[in-house]
Structure formats: structure tokens, C-alpha cells
Records
---
Amino acid sequence: MNDEIVLNIGFDDTDSPKGMCTTFLAYKIVDLLQKQQTVFLDFPRLIRFNPNIPWKTRGNGAVSMKIKTKNPSKVKNQIKNFVSKYSDTENGANPGLVFLESDSIPSEFIKFSNLALWQLINRNNAKKFAKRNNLEVYFQGNGQGLVGAIGAIGYDFHDHTLELLSYRKKPKFGKERKISTESVKTMQEETSPSTFNSFDTEKGRILIMPHGPDPVFYGIRGENVRSLLHATTILKSDEKLDGHMIFKSNQGTGDHLKNELNSENMKPYASGKITGIVSSIPKAVRGGHVFFKIVSQNHEFWCAVYKPTGISTIASNLIKGDKICVGGGVRKASKNFPRVINLEFLDIIALEKNTSTSNPYCKKCHKKMKSKGKNQGFQCVRCGKKDSKKIFNEIPRKIQKQLYLPKISAHRHLTRPLQRIGIVNNVTDFDESLSWFCVYGK
């Protein structure tokens, strides 16, 4: 009898803007493997990588799984067939699939994954990595999916969330999604803070449903399995769904912004944070977007805050000397601007005093004195009383020392919402009974 082998499976870039979804492929693979009594060692993992990569389809997510099997060759062949079947290569998908037979993850994988979180990694580097580590890989097209496939296996959780993704039946792919708005609102009220970013109360907007032609009907993000399963019982829709699966994810962790940006690593499309002093008066441009500069480690950097984020007004109230920490993605240089950090958060650490000067008042006549000329002091035109100094007035600041995040509708998958600030979810409560996976039947 063959010994059981621990097999790590990573795959990415199976979707295109016109259809399919990497998580749906994972759903199909789990459906196949659980019918073969495969032992799952953890939740399927949905890892979101650097969201500023220009050729990503939607959330730049890759998937990995960790299983035990007595017949790894059979499983590998089955999964290769599924990757071919459920990848939208006709519309530009470049799927990559990686297998690693090991209970522990080599440090090289973890380093690769950490880099993919905040920098741009060339697909040729992924191919070289696979060759250097003697990995069994499979890819189609240009092999771009190998980057995410390796990274998903190598991701090392220090904090995590869960997401329950529900899937549509095939005849419904690409058709309008309909769900009761009130039920989504109620679901958020009853399950928050164990779930998050489900409904934007300010705009009355549903945040759990995608808008593209992919097979996902909705996705609920949260902290534990029980809350996610309860949330599904509150939602109301007439559409009969195919099933659901819960993923362990780095969504809502702010993972891509933990690295410090500087003059050397601030390359186009990089993500990270930088602490510095505001060095220019914020300038609003057409459309309501705000640009300003900060100085950090003797280098000056441009920052941009776009109006849809809802924090452009905050940025416009900054003044020179304010100490702030900003996080976001680096936009490549254009004709009008050098490289710019597109802000995803603004954390005000210290506020400079905002002062203005005015002519002194005559204490006798209670009127402002007039200047006698440059460096000649001031004089009351009524009684002739003189004074030599202007008055300094402190102007109250309209902003506070605190963290400012974009409006909930402008959050990215990786954005850490306010309700998760200070929360670290590092305990994996994995249930081997497959309560995290369900096909609803005919």
C-alpha cells in the first residue's frame, strides 16, 4: 500500500475579463477530490497579491490547496485536465499550475510570495524559480499564472480572514445578478463585526456581488466559518445556486502595504507605505483629485488622492510640516508628473500649527492699526498710538491625528477596514468535515 503524500497545489490566471474564475476552478477541483475521499489539511487558500499589477483581471487572486493523497500522479493529471477545461485561454487567460510534494513550505517559496505581495515579478523569474527548485509545473499561454501559483503555495499567514463564495449554475453565467438589498443590509447588521464590507450604508450599495460575467454570485468576507454560514441563511434571492466554498484569505489584512517605500524600491506598480513630512501645499486639480509632496529620508515624493476615495478633502487640509504616513501603489511617471503614490490610506501622525498674521488692534480705539511701511511698524489712524509687531492667530485645523481610509465602496480586496484595525486572526479553526464546502444538488 502506498504511503500518503502531502501535496501542495497552486494555480492562477485561469480567468479573463470575459469569463471564468480561478476560485470556481478551485470549487470544481474540491468537488472532484472530496468524492475521492481526499484528505484536506486546510481551507483552500485565496491569496490576493499586489493589486497594482496592470494586467491583473479583477482582484489579482491566486489559489492553493494542501491535501494528502496516496496517488499524487492521478490527482496531478486530473487537476491539469481541470485547468485546461476551466481556463478562459481563448480570451487571454495564461494559467499556471504548480505542484509541491512537501509537508513544510521551503523558505524560498515564502520569500517569493512576500515579494509578489508588493512588487511586480516577471513571469520569466517564476519559470526560473520553478526550474531552480525542480518543481513540476504546467502552464498555457505565456505562463504568467506561475507567479501567483508559486506565491499562493508560499504565502505565510500572520493574519487571515475567510470568504464564502457562492457559485451560479452554468446557464446563469453572464446574466444579471438579483438579490434582495434589504436582506444584504440585514445580514450586515446581524453579523457584523464577524463579517465586513458587505453593504455600503452611505450609498445604499451592495458590496458582496461582482459585476462581471464570472460564475461567482456573491462573496461574504468574515472572521469565522459559523458567521459566514449564518450570513447565507439571511440573504434572499430567487436564483438557485450551484453551491459554495469557504476560502482562507489575506483579504482585509492590508498585507500589500506593510513594506516601507523609499527612493530605491519605489518602482512603477510597487505597493507600500512611506512616512514623511508634507512639503508642499496640496493642490486640487480638475475632477477634485488632490496632489501634494512629502519628504522622507531626504527625498521628495508625490502623492495623489482621488476624489472617489472620499479622503481628498482630508488631504486638501494638510499643510507644510504635517507628519503623515501614507500607503498605496506607485503610478509610473507621466508627461505631467514623476512617479506618484496613489493613496489607499492617510494616517496623520502630527499636525503643524496653522497660523496667520494680522495688523495689531489699537486697545484704545478698538480698530486695526495701519502699516507705516515695510519694517516701520503700525499706527492707529485715529489716536496715533503705535505698535511694532503683527499679531499671530492660530487657525483651528479641520483634520485630526488619526487614520483616514477610503469610503467602503472604494476599498480594495486587501484594504484593512476600520473594524479590523488591531485585530489579528492567527488561529486556524479548520473543520475536516467539509462544512466549508457544499454543492446544493439539482
Note: The radius of gyration is 27 Å.
---
Amino acid sequence: MPTAQTRRCRPSRSFANLGVLLLAAFAAPLLAFEQHTAHGGPIKGIALSADGKWLVSTSFDYSAVLWSLPALTERRRLDGHEAAVNTAAFSPDGRLLATAGDDARIRIWRLDELLDDRREPRATVLDGHSAKIVDLAFSRDGRTLASSSWDHRVGLWRMEDLSLQRFLTGHEGPVNMSRFSDDGRSLYSAGADGHIRLWTVADGRQVRSVVNHGWGVTTIAIDEPHDLLVYGATDGAMRGRALRGQRATVDYAVEGKPVLALAMDVSSGHFAFGSSDGRVVIIDGSSGETAHDFRATMGPVWALALLPHADALVFGGLDDFLTRIPLAGETIVGSGAARERRFHPLGALGNGERQFARKCSVCHSLDDNDRRRAGPNLHGVFGRKAGAVNGYPYSQALAGAPLVWSEETIDALFRDGPEVITPGSKMPLQKITNGGDRRDLIDFLKHATQ
């Protein structure tokens, strides 16, 4: 069953001068927001269906969750990816849902199967990329899916037979996002090389570099009726410029933190940026004016969506819940609350518990009833053979490892690293170099996992 935690705060007021506005930026939070929990790890991506009835979130916990709108009620959990799920996209007709992630695979789901509680949904897997996939986009007619990958390529996939059409190569670094032109004949791709490149879909030819920003371009959106190309970059730039030269280039923000997310609402013409320091900037695309500019959270905004008519914003990041903020009414200013996270607690903790919170709790739970994390639960871990938690999809390397967890093996795991102790497993590469920190962590685990 879904868990929804709702928190409401006082609405903000409009401010008449810059001095008051700056004070507001550091004041107590003035935002009204709701928190909706269904994941066991940070939120990596959010996608909204064209009809506004469905939303999907993707997570570091290897899953995607389908939500029904407007209530934001958890409808179905989608499992099957073998690593963090970074991105999702609905087909324009709403029949298909595509997800992709760090396992370099695309999974295609049928929405009717996801809504049938009598059936276990099955996804068709599309293989071909050799590094993580960070963005998916359908053409407006739904015939083609574009996948942007850190293998420096964009994949074009035919939805008619779920086959690879071709790869687009030319970026000199990871490709972060791609978007089709309205007629589906052209594709714009944004890369870490600082370029936004234009391609012809039919033959995969690179036409030209539309933008050479210098810094990596992380996000793009296209609004052809208004001759608008919007993008964000690692230098904090939030910029709008002409697709065909009919409008002046506008910097909505400069010299900020890296831009990580961008969403556009076609019904209102608004678009929203999210940055690595939790800032959200919402622009009225028709006028170019800033509608909202506020600190939404303490930490990165990795994913966001504007609900129809820009009535509300849904965003996600390091927390394992979605946050919805209503946007109707007065302009929002102020800052998000410094909310405690399970892996970055604000209160006073013993060193062992702090090590667990910051190094382990993103992936692992101490509760044997928690099945929503990227890694297996640690309840009863001491004396347990590696790969022995029932129901957890272990890698073959760990499932067959002749390893029993003990004080000595756990110490070695964090001293030498997973690449040495559990080579080929899913565990992220990390070490705790300080021997005292390792001892404190083990002492905490001995008590907490009983």
C-alpha cells in the first residue's frame, strides 16, 4: 500500500524590494508541500503521461513506480532493472512506458498490463548501449524512441517491432538528453561536450551544432510554435534562445549551480529548471518572465514535472519521496526546509550509526520487512552466507561467492573495497579508510542487526 506523508506550511507573500527578498531566501520555509513515499532510495527521474492521468518515478532502488493523478497514489511498482533506474517516458498515446538506467538497458512496458492487478507485468528488454542510459524521449507520433547514453551515443528504436533503427554518434562525451522536432524528422541532443547537435532521423546525419555552450549541456526542451530552445548547463546557465533565429537569447539565470532537471508544460507554456543546490526556477515561456524562483530542498533536484496548466510542481532528489508543491496564487519565494534524511541525519549520532547512515542506508535496511532498497536487508547479517537473503535478485558473482559475513569480512569489505572482496557484484565502489570508523560501524551493526 502507498505511504503518503503530507506536510503543509504557510503560503508566501510577494515582496516589494530586493532587501526583503534576500531576507526571505534565508528565512524559515514558506512553501506548502506534500510528500509521497514509495521508493527505498533517491529519486532519479519523473515522467508525466500526455493525458495527465499518470506519473512515473524512477529511483536508485532499481525500481520505477507508477502513480495515478491527481491524488498521487501509488498504483504499481515496476521491478526488473539490475541497477539504478534513471529515466522514464510515456508514449504519446499512453499505451507504452519506457524505463532505462545504469544497467544500460531499456525496458518497454504496456500500460494495460501494469493496470491489471491479476497479471504480473512483463517488459520487453532493448539492448545495445554500453553505458548508463540517462534520458528517454518518444517522437510525437510514438513511432520512435530516443535513448541518450553515457556511451556517447543516441539510440533510435522503432516501436513498431521494438528494434534498433540506428545509433547517432558524434558527441565527444556523454549524451545527457535528446528531444524530437514536432514532425519527428529531426532530433536535438545535448551533451557533456557543451554542444546541442541537430540530426536527421531518417539517415542519422548530423546537420550541425546548434549550440556550443562551452560547458556541458545537461537538459533541453523544445517549443517549436514559439521558436524556443531552452537548455540548462553545468555552469548554472538556464537559457532560452531561438530555434530559427526569430527571438533574442535570454539568460534566465547565470553563475548558479549545475542544472540537473528541466520540464515543460505544453498547456501553459511554462518550463521549470532544477539545480544541484535545490533551486527551482519556473519561467513563463510566452513572456520570458520568471514566475517562481525558490529553494525547494536542501540538496539536488534530479527530476521534476509540471502538472497540467502548471498548477503544481512535482520533484525528486536525494530523498526517497516525491514532493508536490502547488503553484497557483502568489509568487513563491523562500527556501526549502533542511529536512532530515535517513542517510544524512541532522541530529547527534554515535559514529557507527553515522557511518551506516551515510555509507550504507541508501541501499540497505536493518528491517527484515523492508523490500524497497537497492541492496538486501542486513537483518541477521553476521554469520550469514553472502547471497542468502530470500527474494533478493543477487548478481551471479555474489550468489556463488564462498563468503560468510563476519566482523573480519565486513572490515575487509570496507578496507579493501567491493571490487576486491566481492568482484562483479552490484555494490558501489566505496571504502572506509579510517580503521576506527570501520570498527564503530561494525559495533553498530552487531547491535542493530540482531
Note: Helices lie at 18-25, 111-114, 351-359, 396-399, 407-416, 418-421, 435-448.
